[in-house]
UniProtKB/TrEMBL annotation:
GO molecular function: ATP binding
Keywords carried by this UniProt record: ATP-binding, Nucleotide-binding, Sulfate transport, Translocase, Transport
Pfam families in the cross-refs: ABC_tran
InterPro entries, A to Z: AAA+_ATPase, ABC_SmlMolc_Importer, ABC_transporter-like_ATP-bd, ABC_transporter-like_CS, Mo/tungstate-bd_C_term_dom, P-loop_NTPase, Sulph_transpt1
Lineage: Bacteria, Pseudomonadati, Pseudomonadota, Alphaproteobacteria, Caulobacterales
Protein name as catalogued: Sulfate transport system ATP-binding protein
Organism per entry: Caulobacter ginsengisoli
Keyword S-adenosyl-L-methionine among record annotations: no
Residue ranges of every copy of the ABC transporter domain listed in the record: 3-237
Origin superkingdom: Bacteria
Amino acid sequence: MPLTLTDITKEFGSTPALRGVSLEVRDGEFLALLGPSGSGKTTLLRILAGLARPDAGSVRFNDEDFLALSPRARKAGMVFQHYALFRHMTVAENIAFGLKVRPRKERPTREAIKTRVAELLRLIQLEDLGGRYPAQLSGGQQQRVALARALAIEPRILLLDEPFGALDAKVRRELRHWLRRVHDETGVTTIFVTHDQEEALDLADRVAILSAGQIEQLGAPQEVYEQPATPFVFDFLGAANQIKGEVKAGRLLAEGCSFPLEEACADGPVTAFFRPHEVDVNPEDGEGLACVVATVAARGAAVKVECRCNGRLFDVEWSGRELPAHVKVGAKVKLAPKRFRVFAG
Ligand code: ATP
């Protein structure tokens, strides 16, 4: 394993930021660190970059003690949310900066630096803008320059902290796909911090989901989405409805109804979750939880319906399927989740 983190802990005063994080990052992998605000993502990245020290734990890079190395010796490329480009330098000078400040014996010749900058400008598709200053670029272009600057030193590892966090949704989506292409072209091991589930699931080879300084689950996007290890992961990766119930002989008994379960589950009290898009809304004489339609609202390409059952609201979402005629505000309906995720307790 190129990068192995073992039992990393870090406290700020009495606030635990990381509570025993162990993680192996594969060579050439694109790994997303995903978690809510305050879960410890940035702290973990700063420890890898050498900008912070853990209280305990180790980080090895190809069997080398990574924590014993100075930030520069680690050869990690970093990009932060707020473009830290040098305002008084052109785009080309910004990209060349990391190479120009390398120790003399590692420093490439002027010509080699020029060639490398031209290569990187091509990679970030800003060939013609090398002479511009950062203030003359859009936010998305500035982040591409920041990435080129991080790649210039041929980093052993690329650390990205919410690099698109300050950009609008459309630019963000474009850059996401572009970043994945750049990664595939360079093959550099990349750790990408985000609190955006869609971004992480869309972009990464594997996703590590952090909560309160601990890794809740690590796996391929499909795996963590389809087989969440904990209720937190299920809830964090998408909209979720929750009901309490009991499993008996392969069926879920909840709110006076009985539902078949797809997966084997031990008998006993459970919390069951279902996604808003995995629900049928049957007419009043059909099967399911007795509800009243509380709201029907168009949300872009989808229609969002809220159904009230014993004073609680369940979310239902339609996209790509027509809303049945009986789903109207005030109508009595039966809610039939098609798939549950069940957790004991
Ligand atoms: P965000 O998405 O908001 O950036 P994060 O997941 O990156 O959050 P961290 O910034 O790593 O989380 O913070 C983890 C915890 O450590 C939080 O409780 C935070 O308040 C605390 N923390 C982080 N840096 C410091 C610091 N320099 N001094 C004190 N507490 C800190």
